[in-house]
Amino acid sequence: ICEYLILTPPIGNSGVSVFSSYQGAYNDRLVVFHQDTQNLYFRQRIPNSNAVGVYSVAMDGSNYREVIGGSNATHPDWEVIQFSFNQSLNKILYISDEESDDVFELYSMNLDGSNRVKLNAPLAAGGSVIAFYKVPISGTNPERVVYYADQWSDLRYDLFLANLDGSNINGATKTNQLTMAVDSYTAGETRDVPRIQITNNGLYAVFSHTKKAFSTAGARYYNLYSATLTGATPSIYNLTVSTAGREMYTSTSWHLAPNQ
C-alpha cells in the first residue's frame, strides 16, 4: 500500500506538493505542525522494514527527512506510537518500543537527534508507558511531562511526573507518582488511559481514575483527583468520594473552568 500526504499551495499558486513513502504515511492523528521550524511531523514506516518512525517535511514539500529512524533500535519491528513537542526546549517527546519489542517507553530528544533521554523509571516485567501529557510552562515549574504506565507492577496503571532532563527518575521509590493515593487496584482492571486535564498554568493535573473493585464481582468505580505538578513530591487530593451504591461516573463527566 502506498499512501500520500498532500500539501496544497496557497490560492493563486500552481501545482501541488506531494511526497509518498514506501509503505505509506500513517493515516492517523499524529500529524503535528511545529511552529518554530514551520514543518509537519508525522509517523511513517521506515523504507523496506516493518518499523514505524517519525519524519518531517516543510510546508512547500521540501526538506523531507527522517527524524526518528531507529538509530537506537535493538530489533526490527519497533514503532513510535505517540509523539509531541516541547516548544521552549525544541525537543520531541515520543513513546517507542525501540529498546525491547512490545515494551514501550518514553523518551525526549533534540530535534537534531542528539541528547536522547529515557524519562520513565525501569518498568515492571510486562510493563509499558501507554500515553503522556505535556505540562504547560509555569514560572515555578521545571520542564515536565506526565505519563501513564504500569511501571511498578504489571497491569497496575498509574500516572507519573517526569522532568524532561530525566533528573527525577527513581526506580526504587514512588516520589514522582501522581496516583499514590489511588490504592487497592484490581490487577488488569483497565488498560484505558484515564481522562486527565492539566491546568493552563501547569500547577495541577486533574484526572479521573478507577479505584478498587467492590465486593461484587467485576464492580468498579471512579473518583476525581487533582495532583500538584510542582515540587519534588506531588500532593494528591481526592475531589469526590464514591462508595458502593453511590458511584461517581467521573471518567467523562467533568470539566475545568476556562481560567483554571
SSE topology sketch:
Layout: E1 4-7, E2 17-20, E3 31-34, E4 39-45, E5 52-58, E6 65-68, E7 80-86, E8 91-96, E9 105-110, E10 117-118, E11 129-134, E12 144-153, E13 156-163, E14 196-198, E15 204-210, E16 222-228, E17 236-238
Antiparallel strand pairs: 1-2, 3-4, 4-5, 5-6, 7-8, 8-9, 9-10, 11-12, 12-13, 14-15, 15-16, 16-17
| Biggest pleated sheet | 4 strands, antiparallel
Q: Helical proportion?
A: under 10%
Residues in β-strands, percent: 35-45%
- Order the strands across the largest sheet as they lie in space: 3-4-5-6
Q: Can you give a write-up of this model?
A:
By secondary structure, the chain is mainly β. 0% of the residues lie in helices and 37% in strands. It has no helices and 17 strands. Strand 8 and strand 9 form a beta hairpin. The termini are far apart. Mean pLDDT is 74; it is low at 6-27, 180-184 and 212-216.
Comma- or semicolon-separated keywords:
260 residues; mainly beta; 4-stranded antiparallel beta sheet; 0% helix
Quick summary:
The chain has 260 residues and is mainly beta.
